[in-house]
Amino acid sequence: MRIKAEGPTGARECRHDPHPHPPDFPRLEPAAGLTMTRLAVLCALLLTICITGSSAFIRHSQTGLGCPTGAACRPLAGGASGQGIDPPAEVRTARLMHRVSAMAVGLLAGVIALVGWSSLRGSERTAAVIALLVTGALAWLGRYTPHDLPLVTLGNVLGGFTLAAAFAWIAAPAAHERDALAALRRFGPLAMALLLAFLQAGLGVMISVRHALDACAAIVCLPDGIIDWRIFDALVARSPESPAGARALHLVHRAVALALLAVCAVVAAQARGTALRGARLALVGLLLTQVVLGLAVAQGLWPLFAATAHNMIAASLIALLAAMAAGAVKQVWPPARQPLAHQPPASHPPA
């Protein structure tokens, strides 16, 4: 490369520059790809929560929840045996929304795991693989839904919650705190809260498939007879006639709820004075809403709406707990590369 410069006599001379500078092209930073991947993950998370709601609406409608005596929807209470009965318009609409949303989530899970793989790091890649596998498993399980076996319903509901947790884990940013070990110490209570939330969700599904939602309207219901423990067995298709067993289901469900509230109180206390104020307020709000909805379902107040919202809030709570746990882990092990900073061309001394 030849440049023009003034010589000692003032005349313009041509010199050869031994260090030519490349043109200053803009660089594509990895942070841009990460943002697009996170946007896809957030869309998938919202759709998963919507799928949880539509699935709960369809499932509870098939059990006749909220149907007055003698109503036309009562024949749907036969579960899988009522497949030949034409469902109401709202159930058909919910099924259409469920299928469209499920297809969209499947496509997004594939895009996140395959196209966005280079933008993910560490535990985010593991969560992306889990989301892709769970999506495939749910698509296969959907072929057998509805089914009289409670295990199928458990797989559908808990699989959807696992999918929401995986998407929330990917979307969660790192907890920006000075003490990384303090953030990691919160992981233990958060993991325990997640375990209790899944256990409580499973018990709630068993209450639903055993048609025992109205078995305990009081705050505490003690079994007043012989408990048929088969009511807890997800491999037993037909619901045993055991009022005491139905009350025992409610009792265990509420005991786990109290344990979850206690662990979440520890999580909220640990989050005081940190950057997780918004997550802390959301956690308290979701827990209070869940308690109110649970009491509404037990009392029979707007049962179909309350039961559907109860499932959606449960999915949102699990997603929030997973996001908080992911933030603590990512604080210690950052998942993504740092964006490439623009480096100005190096200056060379004149030849």
Protein described:
By secondary structure, this protein is an all-alpha fold. It is 60% helix and 3% strand. It has nine helices and two strands; from the N terminus they run ββααααααααα. Strands 1-2 form a two-stranded antiparallel sheet. Helix 1 (30-62) packs antiparallel against helix 4, helix 3 (123-141) runs antiparallel to helix 4 and helix 6 (187-209) packs antiparallel against helix 7. The longest helix has 33 residues, at 30-62. It is globular and about 55 Å long. The model is unreliable at 21-33, 74-82 and 336-343 (pLDDT under 50).
Overview features:
single chain, mainly alpha, two-stranded antiparallel sheet, globular, 60% helix, 351 residues
Give the spatial strand order of the biggest sheet. 1-2
Tell me the helix content: 55-70%
Query: Span from first to last CA?
Result: 13 Å
What is the averaged pLDDT score? 80
Low-pLDDT runs of 5+ residues are 21-33, 74-82, 336-343
What is the gyration radius calculated from CA atoms? 28 Å
The biggest sheet, with number of strands, parallel, antiparallel or mixed sense and barrel status, is: 2 strands, antiparallel
DSSP helical segment count: 9
Shape: globular
The percent range for strand residues is under 5%
**What structural class results from the helix and strand content?**
mainly alpha
Order of helices and strands: EEHHHHHHHHH
Number of strands: 2
